[in-house]
Amino acid sequence: MAVASLSRNSNIALPIHPIAMSLLVVGSIAFDSIQTPKDQRERVMGGSGTYGSIAASFFAPVRLVGVVGNDWPKANWDFLLNRGIDLTGVAVAEHAKTFYWLGRYTPDLCDRETLEIELNAFQHFDPVIPHAFRDTPYVFLANTPPAIQLRVIDQLKNPQMVFADTVDLWIETMRPELLSVLRRIDGLLINDVEARQLTELDNVIAAGKAIQRLGPTFVIIKRGEHGAMFFGPDGVGVLPSYPVENIVDPTGAGDSFAGGMMGYLAGLGSTSPTDLKTAMAYGALVASFAVENFSIERLEQIDRAAIEKRMASYRAMLQV
Ligand code: AMP
C-alpha cells in the first residue's frame, strides 16, 4: 500500500495522513536535456507527470499514468517506487524510446525555447487508466495533448476534483479539444501568456474570468517568479512565489506547483476554496525547491519537514 511504502522512505519524515485520499496524475515521463546560461544536463529525468507525481508524493498516495520507452532505466523506476508512487498505470512501449525534450533558457531564466522534442513512445500514447484507479477522487491532468486529457476524463468515475494544465502548443493546434476539456474539469492551471493567448484578452484578470466562463470553477494563472493568481467562486486572489536566490533550473516548476497543490488537497480530502488557497501555497513551496537544482535532484533531497520549515518563513513573509 502506498502509505506504508512512503513511511519506509527515510526522505519523508512526516508520514502521510492515514486517511489521505489518492491522487491520479497523468502526464509525460521524459528524458530532458537542459541548457541554462551557467550549466547544462543531458537526458536527466523529467516530464510533466514525473514532476507532478513526485511533488504530490510529499502529501498523498499517488498513482501515475503515462508511458516510457525501452530505455527507461531501472534506477528511475526504483526512485519513483521508493517515493510510494504507484506505477501500475505506466505503460512500457517495447519498440520505442522515451519522450525526449531539449530546452534552452534565456539569460534571466524567465523564458525558454524548445530546441528539440521527440515524442517517441508518447506519440501513440493512449492512456488506459487501470480499473482500480478509475474512481480516484483527485486527478491532475498534467501537460499532455488535450485529446489525451479527454480520453482520461472519459474513463473517470465520479472524481471529486479534476485539475488540468495546458501549454501554448495545444492552444494553437488543438483549441477545440482544449475547449472540450475546459467544459469537463473543475480547475485549469495556465500561465499568463497562455491565458492571454487562449482568451485573446490582454488583461490577465479579465482573461482569468473569461476562462471561468469556458467551464472551470477554478482558474490558476501562473506568473513564474511573480507568483500566481487564483480565480474561484468567491472572486480573485493572489499568491507570491517563495523568493529563491539561486535558481538553477526552472524546469518542472509549473508541474511541481500543480502536483504539490493537488497532493496537499488529496492529503486533506478537501475541495474547499479556502483549502485550495493553502494548497497553492504548498505548491509554490515545492516549486521553490524544484528550481534549486537540475531535474528532480533537489526534490530528492527534501522531506515534508523541510517544506513545513519553509512554510513557516513563507507565512511570515505573507503577513501585512
Ligand atoms: P514545466 O517546466 O513545469 O513546464 O515542465 C517541464 C516538463 O514538461 C519537462 O520535464 C518536459 O519533459 C515536459 N514537456 C515539455 N514539453 C512537453 C509536451 N509538449 N508535452 C508533455 N510534456 C512536455
Entry summary:
By secondary structure, the chain is α/β, with parallel strands linked by helices. The protein has helices at residues 2-8, 48-56, 74-82, 146-155, 168-173, 175-183, 192-199, 204-213, 253-268, 273-290, 297-301, 304-318; strands at residues 23-26, 30-35, 40-46, 62-68, 86-92, 99-105, 112-118, 138-141, 161-165, 187-191, 218-222, 228-232, 235-239.
Keywords:
alpha/beta; globular; 320 residues; 13 strands; binds adenosine monophosphate; 9-stranded mixed beta sheet; 4-stranded mixed beta sheet; 38% helix; 12 helices
Structure description:
This protein has 320 residues and is α/β, with parallel strands linked by helices. Helix content is 38%, strand content 23%. It is built from 12 helices and 13 strands. The strands form 2 sheets. The protein has a 9-stranded mixed sheet with strand order 5-4-1-8-9-10-11-12-13, with helices on both faces. A hairpin with a 2-residue loop joins strand 12 and strand 13. Helix 10 crosses helix 12. Bound molecules: adenosine monophosphate (AMP). Residues 28, 30, 32, 46-48, 101, 143-144, 169, 251-255 line the site of adenosine monophosphate. Adenosine monophosphate is lined by residues 28, 30, 32, 46-48, 101, 143-144, 169, 251-255.
